[in-house]
What does this fold into?
Amino acid sequence: MKNISDQSIDLKGKKVLLRVDLNVPMKNGSITESSRIEKIIPTINLLIAKQAKIIILSHIGRPKGKVVKGMSLEPISKKLSSLLGKEVLFNEKMVDKKTKYELNKIKNGSIIMLENIRFNQGEESNESEFAKKLSSLGDIYVNDAFSCSHRFHASVEGITKYIPSYFGLQITEEINALRKITSEIKKPVTLIIGGSKISTKIKIINNLIKKFNNIIIVGGMANTMLKHTGSKVGKSIFEKDCGYLIKEILENSKKYNCKITCPIDVVVSENLEGIGKNKELHEINDNEMILDIGQKTIDSIKKIIKDSNTVLWNGPAGYFENPNFQNGTKKILEIISEKTINDKIFSVAGGGETVAAINKFKKFDSFTFVSTAGGAFLEYLEGKTLPGIKALNQNV
It folds into this structure.
């Protein structure tokens, strides 16, 4: 793995094209959550210390090759500048012949951010001509955007064919953390997995069931498990026609000696705005929906985590956006956090909703590693080879 921290790499005066993921949530032009911006700072500081000329490539949203006013990176460049305590220049123009000339004028140790790379036609379609054009803007390419590395895009995969390319600090940390979870496991190891659809995560479950000791299923996925194994779920969301998937999971769990745990009690309400009642599964009425896990389930999860050395969490336990249904998610966070801090277990959390929950309850620093990646995180857990990672490894 060619990492930018390699002391033998001379970056002084070199133009470094730094691909990062600054696709942060925004409301009315203001950034509402900045963890993705904060995570790239170590790599930028290293490049500053090495006197490189830093050219940031990133995106926000899906403009599909067109300029969209509300998807400019300019507010993000200002936020990054305030976090660094250093000016971040912003180039609002599209990538063209003049861009290279303008970039040649920046000084060593300075930073310039180009406008949303997805405004350019050829980025998302990974056109070779656009990838060549991008590569001509710099001397070295650094990918520090793990969360984009499952994309066959010009600034992620195509560019590596035309310029010396390296891993950034953040992407290296991410890969190492996930490698410890999936390949260098310290057992017993537990997966807590949630989300609305079990069909979208069946590949993750079947990949990890061979390696993990416990898989705890919560959220809408648990409703599907419960429904297809004969339990009452009322009017809860669940997937129909998933009997074969449930059968596959249960058969593989026996084959690989992995214990599957589902809720044994739940918190229900007639609607999302309700107060909530803790009920046994057989007590659920037809007009009620499951919106959280109950206390007995929390206690069983606590016991499993207590006996684990490694924990991976992806997906909240319930509808945590309503305080009446946040207890399960909050308690799981507290249990993993306490175990991580006191017993030094290896804990990793990832996925959009999971990170949102972690931020809500201010537990970001309570895990060994928190992945801000979404699709790339899930595809890695499925066992897929990510195009952006493969491209860097091939660029030797």
Notes: The CA atoms of residues 6 and 322 lie 47 Å apart.
